[in-house]
Amino acid sequence: MNAEQLRECGHKMVDFIADYYKDIENFPVLSQVQPGYLRELLPGSVPIHPDRLEDVLDDVQAKILPGVTHWQSPNFFAYYPSNSSIAGFLGEMLSAGINMVGFSWITSPAATELEMIVLDWLAKALNLPDDFLSTGQGGGVIQGTASEAVLVVLLAARDRVLRKIGKDSIGKLVVYSSDQTHSALQKACQIAGIHPENCRVLKTDSSTDYALSPESLNEAITQDLTIGLVPFFLCATVGSTSSTAVDPLLALGKITKSNGIWFHVDAAYAGSSCVCPELRHYIDGVEEADSFNMNAHKWFLTNFDCSALWVKDRSALIQSLSTNPEFLKNKASERNMVVDYKDWQIPLGRRFRSLKLWMVLRLYGLENLQAYIRNHINLARHFEELVAQDSRFEILAPRNFSLVCFRLLGPQGNEECANKLNHDLLDAVNSTGKIYISHTVLSNKYTLRFAVGAPLTEERHVVDAWKTLQDEASTLLRSL
């Protein structure tokens, strides 16, 4: 393909994507297809001769899009947002066009250096401690997801302690978290070889708004020390998946510091909001942490994937994850003049992800990014007010950011019936195709989650979503 053919095909693809966004509100938000639908529509083997791009795009329209759940729809209120934007899309396009593999500085110096600069920018926007900047002993690195972020710091923490007590003591290592911590930690422990019986999942409840209690952590650590185990890692959360619970970082950090425990803060969803000065207090105490993570691809208008991880001591990552085969050796690396991000992550290869984050920061500016987040919070507040005005519903957790946890009340004293009622309500509203929401369980109560965060969502979408919920609730209640 020459430059003119690229230009022609590129224009057609941009037109297709622009039309998709123009029409996105008309699609059922949750795909309504049945499992295996696509195998019935596509050939069983690769074509022998090339197809035209127009024919491929026709198939995307007719066969692929019906099987897509539209995460960028203004009526998508499930899970947490996975933001896209023109700035992010353009950065992704440019990264794909350049298509370099920047595992070490020498393989594309701009990729490494831009990543260091952009993550320093973002750290300053979040008012993170200087210890997390690349100008000191720490620094930032873009991982694919928060799951990768927690894995690499868990490995660094594991190896740091095993160098002191001996590698045969891995069976004594203990990890701590609350029962609201993302399941990524469990998977990281499985990969890292932490014994399942040494993973302390500490119970939370509504009395602390589902935040981890420092007292329960202290008690668990004391018990483990008494029986000869080695506490070495705590994962705290700012904006938990179920309810946006916020763990008390300062108190937890003091406990970890006094016990030599690596303290990781997972702010995958809510971290973005802390660029707003009035919300920065949610990460007060982050100065006690060894590592901090937020997903720019969730609520920061940066196309998936782009998960920012900062550490205070980059040497801990490098000691755990570095490899140095002959074919990768070069003068800049051997003289310790540069950062090689291959030693800060699991895979060797890495994409030029900093390019899209750089473009988002430049093309929006911090002021517009703050306004974007504040708008979603205001929309969620409005939805919360609508729920509170309907006596058939109740709010189940504080709305810290842009997530509202609520449920339809069932017959008094019959939790089993109430749980089934809300399960049925979830299925009913999602089956309409008008909106998509998801659920969790809080204090054994089946809970509906309404997360505002899609870039195109306006107040009218929130109001219409509430009407859909009310209408389906009325239908269910009449059938009781």
Known CATH architecture of the domain at 101-351:
3-Layer(aba) Sandwich
Average pLDDT, to the nearest integer? 94
> In percent terms, what proportion of residues is strand?
5-15%
Query: What is the string of helix and strand elements?
Result: HHHHEHEHEHEHEEHEHHHEEHEEH
The main pleated sheet reads as: 7 strands, mixed
Q: Quickly name the level 1 CATH class of the domain at 101-351.
A: Alpha Beta
Coarse morphology:
globular
Q: Could you state the CATH homologous superfamily of the domain at 101-351?
A: Type I PLP-dependent aspartate aminotransferase-like (Major domain)
Number of helices: 14
Instruction: Give the termini distance in whole angstroms.
Output: 63 Å
Helices and strands: which structural class? Answer: alpha/beta
The strand line-up of the biggest sheet is: 1-7-6-5-4-2-3
- Proportion of helical residues: 40-55%
CATH topology of the domain at 101-351: Aspartate Aminotransferase, domain 2
Q: How many DSSP-defined strands?
A: 11
As residue ranges, the low-confidence spans are none
Measured on Cα atoms, how large is the radius of gyration? 24 Å
What does this structure look like?
This is Tyrosine decarboxylase. Belongs to the group II decarboxylase family. Pfam families: Pyridoxal_deC. GO terms for molecular function: L-tryptophan decarboxylase activity. The protein is α/β, with parallel strands linked by helices. The chain has a domain of 251 residues: Aspartate Aminotransferase, domain 2 (3-Layer(aba) Sandwich), CATH 3.40.640. α3 runs antiparallel to α12, α5 packs parallel to α6 and α12 crosses α14. The N and C termini lie far apart (63 Å). The relative contact order is 0.14. The mean pLDDT is 94.
